User: Fold this.
Amino acid sequence: MGRQHYDERDKRFQLGAVVSRRYSQAVMGIDSTVICTTMLIVPLIVEVITDSDNREEWAIVFFVIAGIMIVTNLFFVVFARASAASWAKEDSSSNDQSEGLEWN
Assistant:
């Protein structure tokens, strides 16, 4: 059961590497920064919403988080592609630097 969580996380990182190719370190760094920032901010927001710690306030927290998850997942399903981004593709001129040289 615990391994499945890591497999799903690995797939997300693999998609970032596929899309960004040679810039994958920067993209994954930005992704990790956003995730860590969210993990720091969400408990503060939950504390503000659940001031008196009753069931109605926790229901609000649940529905807000569920709504955010649904919207972001729909965005991913509509716009995600599993091919390299145009800005990550290598241009042919950079690969042809050795053109005209003979290798013995």
Summary: The mean pLDDT is 77. The radius of gyration is 21 Å.
